[in-house]
Design goal:
homodimer; alpha+beta; Chorismate lyase; six-stranded antiparallel beta sheet; three-stranded mixed beta sheet
DNA sequence: GCAAAATGTTCTATATCTAATACAAATACA
DNA sequence: TGTATTTGTATTAGATATAGAACATTTTGC
């Protein structure tokens, strides 16, 4: 019984991809010839070529007969970079067309995980929904939400298909006050892969958020998956405290809808830590 | 020409491994039968079995003829959930033993990406280093850093192997003032996979951070990779503003070292928001 | 005890991966 | 203009991955 290993082709493909994206191999640089690569990695030229074909498809290299294989300008992520927490507001402000497809809508006993997070009594019922959100007709997030039944009944299936959940909640008188969110990385399974239009086994950003109202009661449990090629989670920080207590603290990341792009490192940035380190 | 993909066996193997380690499938839980899995994933039973064999070898499942396949309590080490920005300080505060292995240390012309981020003139030289950080002898982060040469010369190779880079910088009189960081998801290539002791093709949390001093000059470019089974990025937020301007704002997220719950990355972290309202 | 369902085992057949080789076409350079 | 080197293409052969099926053995549950 052998450990499960990836194919040699994929190994080489990932290796080269890594080096290119990482900048080890800079744009314009010529890769070793196929026979050379074959010798270096002790693989046949067929395998080398298959890996290069993958890179070519990714737009990472240019192959010129007779000349060689060259690294292209691997542009670092042209995607919509934004703070996941306010992303939707962002997109709307930027006038991007977003829509959500409702895949599932039901009332059911709360899964243990959700019960624990929202501090429900065991088996209490919740409103459960699964949505995929699109931006300009390309899927960019997969949202699974759980809301305590007492709150869930205040909106309908149609509401959920058209309006952000948080908006619905606040319309119902719920005061979203605090949230705790966790970001991790996962792999796309067959289902998710199809919905988000990525390959099975692709990396995904996974975010779990629990929202509490002003009484500290859990009102929403959200598990979201994002395509890392379309989004990344960005935040600004400042250095606060002194001595051993000196640490990074987040800065309120209100990204200005007008000001696209860069973290804006300008020293003249008057937007000082608008956050109170209290 | 088809995109380079991992084998179906490996795909399924990684997918299930993920779910188990993440707690989606809790210990004791019985997996669907092999024919069921085959149907769900549209694979042959042979393939299903190969993947399960891998998991069995890892000690993640127990297979009992006639009964089924069960998830074992392989909950590895308790995941250290923390804010990536202050993680190191955390760990130190918790008395965990961390050490870094220096894999590379050199002075070289700045890669274009780094030049752009740090706003260096093209070709300006930088101090480049690659480190792997261990906690209790298991690798948990892979760090690639670039520092402008004028600053880089203030510390030695030995310094870097023993002391956090930011500490070195501040010791040299650099005042780290602001930082911009971006979090995404990637896949582990062969090199990284070996260094972080994960499978090739495993998901990784990728963080890029640019640190600026009080004059707005870039002083450090950091590209870090984290194992999502050991760490996740957590933050607390509050709801601020009114009306259409109502948004999420981050809260200084100091995790209390004392609060040693059974965290576990991913879904189901029921840990109550442990912010210190100071 | 019996039937259903689960994993374990074995087999055949096909597709894909990989190696090895040969040759054509395009390019670079002395 | 050659000549060497490069990528593109094709063929052959063997190893491996995957699908599909049949059957044995163990367990569960009635």
């Amino acid at each position: 019984m052998v450990a499960i290993e990836p194919s040699k082709t994929q190994r080489l493909y990932l290796l080269l991809k890594e080096q290119i994206l990482k900048g080890v191999l800079s744009p314009g640089h010529r890769l070793p010839s196929e026979p050379q690569l074959a010798a270096q990695h002790r693989l046949s030229r067929v395998t080398i070529r298959r890996a290069l074909e993958g890179l070519e498809q990714d737009g990472l290299i240019r192959r010129q007969p007779g000349a060689g294989t060259f690294v292209l300008d691997a542009r670092p992520r042209k995607g919509v970079v934004g703070d996941l927490s306010n992303m939707l507001a962002h997109l709307v402000a930027m006038g991007r067309a977003t829509r959500a497809k409702l895949l599932s809508f039901s009332y059911q006993p709360s899964p243990p995980v959700v019960s624990a997070a929202l501090k429900l009594v065991d088996g209490e019922r919740v409103q459960h929904s699964i949505r995929v959100r699109y931006i300009d007709d390309t899927p960019f997030s997969h949202l699974t939400t759980y809301v305590p039944e007492r709150i869930g009944v205040t909106y309908s299936e149609a509401d959920l298909a058209s309006t952000p959940l948080l908006t619905l909640l606040e319309r119902s008188g719920v005061v979203a006050d605090r949230a705790s969110q966790t970001v991790t990385a996962t792999l796309a399974g067959p289902e998710i892969a199809e919905l988000l239009q990525v390959e099975i086994g692709s990396p995904l950003l996974s975010m779990t958020r629990v929202v509490y109202d002003d009484h500290g009661r859990g009102v929403e449990y959200l598990s979201a998956l994002y395509r890392p090629d379309l989004h990344s989670f960005q935040m600004e920080m400042t250095r606060t405290g002194i001595g051993a207590e000196r640490r990074w603290s987040p800065v309120s990341s209100l990204t200005r809808p007008g000001a696209e792009t860069k973290p804006l490192p300008g020293r003249g940035n008057s937007r000082r830590p608008s956050i109170t380190p209290l």
